[in-house]
Amino acid sequence: MQKRFRSTKRALTKRVTSFNFYVDQATQIQAIMEATGTTMEAPLVRQLVDEALAARRRKLVPLEAPTQVPPLQEQSEILETIQTLLLRIIGQGETEYRIGSISLELLQEALSEARATRLCLWEHLVAPHLKETGKSPHEISELWNATTKQAQDHTYGLALEIKNQLLAAEGTSVATIASVDDDDRQGRLLYEVTDTSDQGPQAA
C-alpha cells in the first residue's frame, strides 16, 4: 500500500538542489520507498532531512535532569529540624548574653569596691601623712594622679601582653606599644581612655 506524505503549508524554495547520494544512502532510500510504496523521491528526502535536523537540535540542547521535589513528609521533617536548630541557637545566645551581663555586673562591683577602698586608704592614711611631711594639696593631688596613671599603664600593658600571646598562638602579631605615655594605648585594646586627673580625692 502506497503511503502518502502529508502536505504542509511550508513553502518550497525555487532553488533546485541536486546532489549525488552515497551508494549505501541510495540503497536505504530505495528500500524506504519500496516499504512505504511511494514513488516520489523528493518528499521522502525532505522528510529525512527534517528528521536529521531535529535530531541534531536535540543533540545540541543539554538534557537537564528533572529536579526531584522531596515528598511533603520529608519537607515537614526538614522544616521541623531547622526550627529546632534555630530555637537551640537562640537559647544558647540568650544564655551567653545573661552570663555576659552577670560577669559585667560582677566586674563593675569589683572595680567599684577597689576604687572605694583605695580612696578610703588614701584619704585616711596616705593624705594625712603627706600633709605632715609638708606636701601641699597640689602636690598630693599630683601624686594621686601619678599613682593612678602608673597603675593604668601596668594594667593596660599586661592586657596587651596577654592579647599578643593569644594572637601569636593564632599566627597573628600585634605591634607593641612604644611608650606607656601614648594616649592611644587603650585604643589598641578597644578601651575607652579615661582622664583621672580630676577624679582623685580633693586634698584639703
Descriptive overview:
The chain is mainly α. 63% of the residues lie in helices and 0% in strands.
List the helices and strands and how they pair.
Layout: H1 23-36, H2 41-60, H3 72-132, H4 137-169
Characteristics:
mainly alpha, 204 residues, 3 domains
Give a short synopsis of this structure.
The chain is mainly α and 204 residues long. It is 63% helix and 0% strand.
Give the overall silhouette.
Answer: rod-shaped
Low-confidence stretches: 173-182, 184-194
Spatial separation of the terminal alpha carbons: 131 Å
Helix/strand class: mainly alpha
- N-to-C SSE string, H for helix and E for strand: HHHH
> How many separate domains?
3
Number of extended strands? 0
- Supply Rg: 46 Å
Largest sheet geometry: none
Mean pLDDT: 78
The helix content is 55-70%
- Strand-residue fraction? under 5%
Number of separate helices: 4
